[in-house]
Design a protein that fits this description.
Helices cover 48% and strands 11% of the residues. The protein contains 14 helices and 6 strands. Among the domains are: 2-82; 116-229, Endonuclease III, domain 1 (Orthogonal Bundle), CATH 1.10.340.30. The chain is of the alpha+beta class. Strands 1-4-3-2 form a 4-stranded antiparallel sheet, with helices on one face. The protein has a two-stranded antiparallel ribbon with strand order 5-6. Helix 5 packs across helix 11, helix 10 (204-212) crosses helix 11 and helix 12 crosses helix 14. The structure holds a DNA duplex.
Length: 292
DNA sequence: TACCAGGTAAAAA
DNA sequence: TTTTTACATGGT
């Protein structure tokens, strides 16, 4: 068991609730994060619960025997512990639409996928089709090429997907084109030709250039990976259909915005445009009537 | 039943 | 150089 001290305000329960509003996922209904991941070489369940509200303190643990330092690092990565929301709240305070939303969702952060590789595959699956459809495709990928631990499935390593024939990947529901993207990506990462972790040290602009140079990743995927996979809070896929729809309704009071209108609407929120967008999307999903 | 859903690369014009 | 096309699945 290790303690994690997130920077600034944090509400794990709210963050889990938002996560499950975006995808069905195995997120628990209670306020405990339970996520399967490899810690070093060891498959493990990582459990995170909040033991103090303010200043926030998290407790990370695992039923498996894993290095406490590595466990802490993984928990910090997944929960975006290094992000301090305070300056973002100060900036959005006076914003007519965003201000009330940030007050309502105080302490909300998104959860990062355990690795950039996983995030990259998520991005490919979510190109063009609905999040729900993409989730089903990933579920099949994970159950075919991943590893089960205590009822949860660890996302496949690059090696697992590199070994798979593109046709096997496609049989999980990927288009043959996307199956090639995933296969190429997995093989390049596994061979060491592509170092996705090197993105962590790059500026947003460098990272965009790096990602879009990879086959299968356009501007949308690059910005999506930056905000969701890396927690780069200023990155926004402005041409994203969901972003354009929700911002059109939330900020424009009307129909779907164009990408240019999204850029204009978010300009005052720099350097937190991605975070602002996440809050508006989360608010939109959380306030939709749930099933039952 | 259609149609749309948090795009991309490659072909065609 | 710009525009069009094929693509896979799930929800409505």
């Amino acid at each position: 068991m290790v303690l994690v001290h997130p920077q600034g305000p944090y509400d794990l329960g709210l963050s889990l609730k938002a996560a499950s509003a975006f995808s069905p996922g195995p997120h628990t209904s209670e306020a405990v994060l339970r996520t399967p991941a490899k810690v070093g070489r060891t498959p493990a369940i990582i459990e995170v619960r909040q033991v103090q509200a303010s200043p926030p303190v998290l407790e990370a643990s695992s039923p498996q025997r894993i290095d406490p330092k590595a466990l802490k690092k993984k928990a910090e990565w997944i929960t975006l512990a290094d992000l301090d929301l305070s300056p973002f709240y100060a900036l959005s305070e006076g914003h007519p639409q965003l201000g009330p939303v940030t007050r309502l969702l105080h302490g909300l952060k998104h959860l990062r996928p355990a690795s950039i590789f996983e995030m990259a595959v998520i991005a490919i699956t979510e190109q063009q089709i609905s999040l729900a459809a993409a989730y089903r495709v990933r579920e099949r990928l994970v159950k075919r090429f991943g590893q089960e631990i205590d009822g949860l499935w660890i996302f496949p390593d690059p090696e697992n997907l590199a070994r798979a024939a593109p046709s096997e990947l496609a049989s999980c529901g990927l288009s043959s084109r996307k199956a090639e993207y995933v296969s190429d990506l997995a093989r390049n990462v596994h061979d060491g030709r592509l170092d996705l972790d090197s993105i962590k040290a790059m500026s947003d602009e460098e990272a965009r250039a790096f990602i879009t140079a990879i086959r299968g990743f356009g501007r949308w995927s690059a910005d999506y990976i930056l905000i969701r996979g890396l927690g780069r809070v200023d990155a926004v896929p402005a041409d994203d259909l969901g972003v354009r729809t929700v911002l059109g309704r939330a900020l424009g009071g009307g129909p779907r915005m164009t990408a240019a209108e999204v850029e204009d609407a978010l300009a005052p929120l720099r350097p937190y445009r991605g975070l602002a967008t996440f809050y508006l999307l989360a608010y939109s999903r959380l306030t939709k009537a749930g099933p039952g």
